[in-house]
Description:
Layout: E1 9-12, H1 20-28, E2 32-35, E3 40-43, H2 48-54, E4 59-62, H3 65-74, H4 79-82, E5 86-89, H5 92-100, H6 115-119, E6 131-137, H7 143-150, E7 154-164, H8 171-178, E8 182-186, H9 190-198, H10 202-208, E9 212-215, H11 218-226, E10 231-234, H12 240-251, E11 258-259
Parallel strand pairs: 1-2, 1-8, 4-5, 4-6, 6-7, 8-9, 9-10
Antiparallel strand pairs: 3-7, 10-11
Amino acid sequence: MTDELKGAVVLVTRPAAQAHRLCELIAQQGGTALRFPTLEIRAVNVETRVIEQSLSRDWLIFTSTNAVDFALKAFDGKMPQLRTLRLAAVGQATANALRQAGLTVACVPEHDFSSEGLLAEADMRQVASQRMTIVRGVGGREKLAQTLRNRGAKVDYLEVYRRCRPEGDNRLLVQHLTEGRLAAITITSGEALENLLTLLDPASNALLRRLPLIVVSERQQQLAKQLGFEQITISRQPTDAAILETLTTLFNGENSGRSN
């Protein structure tokens, strides 16, 4: 254990089931993680017909670790069929989740862990007439599907989970804000950021907007600017380790992330 975070209290807004690792890393670096989930992930009931249809495609493209986790539950008993498909992932964490399930990942970006990064890969450029299913949550971005269709692919969706705003108790967070004890905020999606503001009162939001905010993409940075945040830094990757690195450099006067 080191003291890189110098006792700083850091707000962690990841869904409850996904917050443990980042909170653990923050504690190992001498900080305190304040958990306040601003997203709740719930399974979607998927018809057997839709699952069978997805398993007949050329590619399955997974957009997140949640997509992997909930799809594997939906595919229960059909793993041999799943192993015959080519699988793609938008990032290394998603690819690792597939590999941990014993699956082979045929396409994943090396550096740009996003839809744009995946679309830049050679396997995603020549896709005319190929049948592809994008595995995602309800209401995700359309960029990936639209681009693949423009390149001649036949694309549909398999939506296996939905994101909901939780009904959390905000009293501890409000107390930390009013007493000036919160040092930084971590956010991993635009929806999570919007929910955070919705779950607090205007006075708390005014305090929140003055604090350093760590985001994981330029899209989130632009949204944060529009929402009035004053100090925004982009983590180089959306992983827990990269978010921690951004936090430690922030509190040690360095500037490894991209700031507004």
